[in-house]
């Protein structure tokens, strides 16, 4: 991934919007952290109520060495994006879905969570405070990362008594170093991402570090990312380290059911709706890896990833290559989603929130 330089150095002072426009290398945005100006912080103590939150300068936070998140991984996060439209409007995409998903994840991890209203307010405040970092129309977006952590001290294994909700942001472009070109997936059959009864279905921070080793092994061999199989039978596809996965065969678009081991992606859900609007039959069902290998097209979806076409899948030493239709299929789903997010295609479902 391409890190992006902020040529003016650390972004601490409230520079003019035009200064960022001039100094940012917008055309080479990747998915590396670009430090923006402000973050939003809100705490919840033993009374289980979140105090009023506030913006502060982006910077380090102080934590007890025995904070629940540091010792036992009590933390969940979200990812959402702000877009700048051609006519200068600023939009969030379905932030209430992130707020609800954070509440569901917090319940699974025994954490207090902000209300939907508090969550959306914090995301809006963060986006607006960092508006000069929202890339020009059509280039990328401001990735917004809401994070909820057990910040209270614990020693024995128990939920923390204090929670910190914080939101920060970074301008981003393409997630994969391939840019918009198709990615190459490696099917992992030793490591698994999640098991039945675990927390694979929520956006717990504990779902991410364990996949790093599989990702590193795959990247060392030149692959873009890893596709995981179900932990019971090593037969059905689950998800990719950073995204959900779909296949297209004839006029049917299929993706595995979430069933607790797969993240309920907001892009996943949106693509299922868009696919139906475009006339595809959409199915949520178990997909054996052998069936995926025979698909017409395969693609990944996620907030960070967007809609990423898959160019090849390598399973047990065999590489299968896919060709994308230039007008339909994955590319059409991608252009429709992006068109809605950028305010270029009618938002008939009311997914956009103007800020
Ligand atoms: C997202 O898509 O927002 C995520 O959180 C995935 C992460 C691996 C970047």
Task: Please specify the SSE layout and strand pairing.
Blueprint (H helix, E strand, L loop, with lengths): L16 H7 L14 E7 L9 E4 L10 H5 L2 E3 L2 E5 L5 E4 L1 H14 L7 H14 L11 E10 L12 E10 L10 E6 L23 H9 L4 E5 L7 E4 L3 E6 L2 E4 L10 H12 L3 E4 L4 H5 L3 E6 L3 E10 L2 E4 L7 H13 L10 E3 L1
Helix pairs in contact: 3-4, 6-8
The structure holds 2-OXO-4-methylpentanoic acid (COI).
Supply the key terms.
355 residues; alpha+beta; 8 helices; 17 strands; 27% strand; disordered N terminus; binds 2-OXO-4-methylpentanoic acid; aminotransferase
Please tell me about this protein's structure.
- It holds the Pfam family Aminotran_4.
- Belongs to the class-IV pyridoxal-phosphate-dependent aminotransferase family.
- The chain is α+β, with helices and mostly antiparallel strands and 355 residues long.
- Strand 14 and strand 15 (306-315) form a beta hairpin.
- Helix 6 (266-277) packs across helix 8.
- Helix content is 22%, strand content 27%.
- The chain has helices at residues 17-23, 68-72, 95-108, 116-129, 212-220, 266-277, 289-293, 329-341, and strands spanning 38-44, 54-57, 75-77, 80-84, 90-93, 141-150, 163-172, 183-188, 225-229, 237-240, 244-249, 252-255, 281-284, 297-302, 306-315, 318-321, 352-354.
- The radius of gyration is 20 Å and the shape is globular.
- The two termini are 29 Å apart.
- 2-OXO-4-methylpentanoic acid (COI) is lined by residues 79, 242, 302-305.
């Amino acid at each position: 991934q391409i890190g992006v330089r902020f040529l003016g150095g650390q972004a601490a002072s409230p520079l003019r919007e035009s200064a960022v426009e001039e100094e940012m290398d917008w055309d080479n945005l990747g998915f590396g952290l670009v430090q923006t100006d402000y973050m939003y912080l809100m705490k919840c103590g033993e009374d289980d109520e979140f105090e009023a939150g506030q913006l502060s300068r982006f910077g380090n936070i102080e934590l007890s060495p025995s904070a629940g998140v540091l010792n036992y991984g009590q933390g969940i996060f979200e990812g959402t994006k702000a877009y700048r439209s051609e006519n200068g409007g600023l939009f969030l995409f379905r932030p209430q879905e992130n707020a609800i998903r954070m509440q569901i994840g917090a319940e699974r991890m025994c954490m207090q969570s902000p209300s939907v209203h508090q969550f959306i307010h914090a995301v809006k405040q963060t986006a607006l405070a960092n508006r000069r970092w929202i890339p020009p129309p059509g280039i990328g977006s401001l990735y917004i990362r809401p994070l909820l952590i057990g910040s209270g001290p614990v020693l024995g294994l128990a939920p923390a008594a204090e929670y910190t909700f914080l939101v920060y942001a970074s301008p981003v472009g393409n997630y994969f170093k391939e840019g918009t070109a198709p990615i190459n997936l490696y099917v992992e059959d030793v490591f698994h991402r999640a098991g039945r009864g675990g927390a694979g279905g929520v956006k717990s921070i504990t779902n991410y570090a364990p996949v790093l080793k599989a990702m590193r092994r795959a990247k060392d061999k030149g692959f873009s990312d890893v596709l995981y199989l179900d932990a019971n039978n090593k037969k059905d596809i689950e998800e990719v380290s950073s995204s959900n996965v779909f296949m297209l065969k004839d006029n049917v678009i299929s993706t595995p059911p979430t069933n607790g081991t797969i993240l309920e992606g907001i892009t996943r859900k949106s693509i299922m709706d868009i696919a139906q609007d475009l006339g595809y039959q959409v199915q949520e069902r178990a997909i054996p890896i052998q069936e995926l290998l025979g698909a017409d097209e395969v693609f990944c979806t996620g907030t960070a990833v967007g809609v990423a076409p898959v160019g090849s899948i390598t399973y047990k030493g065999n590489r299968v290559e896919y060709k994308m239709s230039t007008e339909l299929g994955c590319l059409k789903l991608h252009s429709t989603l992006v068109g809605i997010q950028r305010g270029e295609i009618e938002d008939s479902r009311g997914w956009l929130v103007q800020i």
